[in-house]
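Thread: Selenium metabolism protein YedF, structure

OP (GT): Posting the sequence first so everyone is looking at the same thing. Length is 197 residues per the record. Can we get the structure tokens written out before standup tomorrow? I want them in the notebook alongside the other entries.
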Amino acid sequence: MIREINNRGLACPQPVINTKRALDEIQQGTVISVVDNRVALENVTRFAENAGCQVNVEEKNGEFYITITKGEAAAGTVLTMPDRCRTGSVVYLITGNTFGSGAEDLGEVLMVSFFNSLLEKPAPRLIMLVNSGVRLAVQHSRVLDQITRLAERGTEVLACGTCLDYYKLKDQLAVGRVTNMLEILENLTGGDQVITL
């Protein structure tokens, strides 16, 4: 069985996500992941190799055809993205509406990519939004759908009330509930693994 996945024009991590899904659907066979940039090429190749698959790359007219073979030797391999955290014990503290510092428009794109990737992982126990991070959970947020889907999977979403008031967004909160600094502090010191963005 050979299946070709068109990942042309897709930003990271979507080519890896699409490839992973295709490989998850088969016990053995071949998936050809077609990408048009070197970042996607490196990410898909690394993922497939880490999953124990055979990988062959061919370049044609500026596009990369990544042939990934999943066979009996890899049948027992669990195809997952790197998972350093235990399910249910992870708390994300998100302190801004962009990912990283620097160009704001790039930070917004990276935040969308982060939440798309997070949907491919086991749902965290809690997401706490402070400062401009509260903008992620209000109406018209670029990641509102992703956060809502995480909430539906059991992730608790807390948005700082002081921050919502400061940005005059309290009436626009679309997912989760309002919290305070004491509850935020209790969750930060409660023994879960805390990841700050």
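GT: Both are above now. Quick notes for whoever picks this up: Confidence is low (pLDDT under 50) at residues 73-88. The radius of gyration is 19 Å.
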